[in-house]
Amino acid sequence: MPESWNMRLVGHEPMAGDGDCMHVNVRNGFAYVGHMSDRGTSIVDIRDPRRPELRGRIPSPPNTHGHKVQIVDDILLVNREKIPLTRGPFVAGLDVYDLSDPLEPRPLAFWACGGKGVHGMTWWSGRDAYVTAGADDVSNQFLVILDLSDPAEPLEVGRWMLPGMAATDAPE
Known about the structure:
- It is a single chain.
- This protein is mostly beta strands.
- It is built from no helices and 13 strands.
- The chain has strands spanning 21-27, 30-35, 41-45, 53-58, 64-65, 69-72, 75-82, 93-98, 106-112, 120-122, 128-133, 142-147, 155-160.
- Strand 6 (69-72) and strand 7 form a beta hairpin.
- The protein is globular.
């Protein structure tokens, strides 16, 4: 099998040796790259795809992933989830940023959850983001619907989990 088909490499950015990328979203000539480690979210200028350039980072807290990113208009979502096999404090939730200035993302909000945090999110347009999140009284991550009509005030408007996941479902 060929390594690639119907594609060719036009540029490369070594990301300061931190190229363990997971999710990538592009907006207005900049790629926002989530990392599997606690290296944060990289901001790569790709306006000239032959010469991509790492231009900044949104830091992640210690022991915390920021490996999933999602952009709608000028709003960036970054997950916050415990990195497996790490010890120590971590942050569980979802960061919301304003990308009006693509090189200086401005924090708008943090939606906190429990458990091991937010794993991923799906948000393409409109107000509702579908998020896999945790809670301290639930055995694993589950679906949460967040209303982002005001991105500075994320509001949980729904959740769904399998029967038996919530601690209140445990038999007495």
